[in-house]
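Figure 2 data, in text form.
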Amino acid sequence: MKAVFLTAPGKFVLQNIPAPSLDKPTDVLLKIQAVGVCGSDIHYFKSGKIGDQIVQYPWIVGHECAAIVEAVGSAVTAVKPGDLVAIDPLVACGVCDQCRSNRRHTCRNQRFLGCPGQMQGCLSEYLIMPADCCFPFTKRVSLNDAVLAEPLSIGVYAVSLMNQRQDTSTAIGILGCGPIGLCVMTAAQAAEVKAIYATERLDYRLAAASRLGAAWIGNAEKVDVVAGVLGQQPCGLDAVFDCSGDQQAFDQAIQLLKPGGTFFIVGIPDTDRISFDISSMRRKEIAIQNVRRQNECVEKAIALIESGKIKTEALVTHQFALSQTQEAFEAVADYRDGVIKGVIRFD
């Protein structure tokens, strides 16, 4: 089978390797149909690491994928050959304290697709995953819809955390309108948040946020976004989601939040350390909530996709063949040609 290996920072090579085969009775053999290029993949592409997760070359990246079930192990009943499935890229041990506390996403023994030292990623024609990571679609959807289930599930999880913390959230901020920011926006709209204030440095992504229903948009490099938002919401926002990983956005979030508000960190910063204005945070009693992956929200994301509430035309802007993986990653890394979500299609 064909697989794409990251062989050095910024360098992919297409190779032929043996196809995997079923081993465990709970395994599923998947024929990959589409892979989304994620921001975390771009970290590995550009620098070869995220924090202490360092790529040992050669390595296959990628974790957002839609696939057709090719074959199943003898104990698998939830999916069958021919099913179109979305993949939860996290394989949890199921027995540690975190798994027993319904926190599989922080499993102490987890393996994650494309994560260095854990599992090779999904930029290959075939892949083996446990059945409990495979979620079938019950309605006909496009491959672009299907591949969005994983990033959308992160947005769904982030919004669910907000709902757990706050009785009502009438006004929220989303800082960074890339794919994850727009997925958070879609999930927030499905949760009936009344007003969403969006900031971004790229005008074309702000335009996408506006098309998706943002109440207010502002370019963080061209306007005073704090003054702009507080001019509309003088008391501040109930919650702010950072989907940029940018220090300036972190500073703006603290200013935008009302006393008792919550700051949700969804994006992955480029640096290993960030800072906060602790005086403002303390006086306003701001809570910080990190958002770690999707925590059992893939099925909820699939339901949202199948409902037709998500508008994929605003998210999937570019499609590439497997042989164009290098071009796809360069386009996303450099924000070329109005790219929001790049998808590598195997068809």
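Caption note: The mean pLDDT is 95.
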